[in-house]
Amino acid sequence: MNYRPTRPARSSAPAIARASAGVFRDLAQRTKFMDPALAERWPQLAGEKLAALCRPGRLTGRGLGRTLELYVPHGAAAAAAEMERDGLIARLNAYLGPGSVSRIAIIQTGKATKAPTRPAAGKAETAGGDAELGAALASFRAAIHRRNGGK
């Protein structure tokens, strides 16, 4: 008896990097995101002080002489980034290649660049130096903690 399969053999699955590259590229273009490697190295490229004030956006343009969008939360951060512009362009060109970035566009977003830190759980929070309110909040928090059985 002659055996013939009813379906053709399946080809192997594509490599995950190749399959996801197009999806991530399209997503990056729609969300105006930039190179993940640049985001990862941003504190080293910009310096700790400047990296805390701003975050990189996308690189616009093609080839040499592209523009980097730099997102800052307020005018003071924009002024600090403006003062560091030439040095930042030099460090970016050293990392990306000579002449890669010729301009930096500073965009004020009005949003913080990093998530705000939460105060410690044991400390009383005060609003505008109001110690009485802080004590009341701490008492309320302790009562909730006791009611939940220390959870």
Provide structural commentary.
This protein is α+β, with helices and mostly antiparallel strands and 151 residues long. It folds into 2 domains: 23-108, GMP Synthetase, Chain A, domain 3, CATH 3.30.300; 118-151. Helix content is 46%, strand content 14%. It contains 6 helices and 3 strands; from the N terminus they run αααββααβα. It has helices spanning 16-30, 36-46, 48-53, 75-83, 85-96, 131-147, and strands spanning 55-60, 66-72, 101-108. A 3-stranded mixed β-sheet has the order 1-2-3. The N and C termini lie far apart (71 Å). This is DciA family protein.
Task: Write a concise keyword list for the protein shown above.
single chain, 151 residues, alpha+beta, GMP Synthetase, Chain A, domain 3, 2 domains, 3-stranded mixed beta sheet, 3 strands, 14% strand, DciA-like
